[in-house]
Amino acid sequence: MNEKTKIKSIGVLCSGGDSPGMNCAIRAVVRTGVGLGLNIYGIRRGFQGILEGDIVKMDASSVGNIIQHGGTILKTSRCLDFYDPATRKEAFNILKRKKIDALVVIGGDGSFNGAYRLHEEHGIPIAGIPGTIDNDITGTDYTVGFDTAVQTAVEAVDKIRDTASSHARTFIVEVMGRQSSAIALHVGVCTGAENIILPSKDRQDLNIEQISADINRGIARGKNSSIIIAAEGETPGLCHRVQKELMSEYNLQAHICILGHIQRGGNPSSLDRFLASRMGYIAIDSLVSGLKCFATCFIQGEVNPTPLEGCLEKRVEYRPYYEELAKKLSI
User: Which terminal residue of the chain, N or C, has fewer Cβ atoms less than 10 Å from its own Cβ?
Assistant: First the structure.
């Protein structure tokens, strides 16, 4: 039995969108806890699983052979009922009856907000592990799943570039990111895209004339393909608008490829496995050391516990330097 704290049992859940590496974090949480003599409980389908009592005890064998797989063995969901204080009170009472003393929540800013309120209202210790492909959580440089999502998109765009070059075509490739520009910027830089369209920009101000000029500039110096990376944004149709205006106003043929949810799946990269494993270990170690409400944040190469309160807001603006870098390298 761990002697640092009175915590004897810890629950772990995934909430919100899945991301590659969640299984690695679950594995680290379970095996670290078991190694310390704790009871570790897996909660299926996020906060909804608490409300439904879908809770199972886990041991070292429960997380065998999962480190290389995407998705999450605990499943996940978005529990809108958790916005209700009465629902959170019910969840706390269920955890109390199950004798679960602390909770590890793997997810994004929405999940962190629900977990923070649960702690504020009822005092249960919370450890948040940032898991989202959008890399948009304030307070951490990277989130679990981001690196894999970018690599998946880069590999897809590389293949699209082969076809674009063979037929001298322009492709508009939509990547995920309703409010976050992180994936689009990284993919744009890594694939040598001629243009990157970000979700934070007002569509009314979208400069199709400049996009056309950039494509024609490339053609003039002998380029036989162009790639435009577009973040999906909150409203569908941006790619089709760009395609239509390029064709009708500037006589430029363009094809659309929407990558969609393939960016969420797949085997996690080595970076995501390593970060998730470190974060899972530090989550448990920090809970048993007495920390009450924190997230495991990756900052300047190190993973450390950081007050969860500072990680609740979504990071919308993402390093304008990267956009400038992409522009400078695409001439």
Answer: N
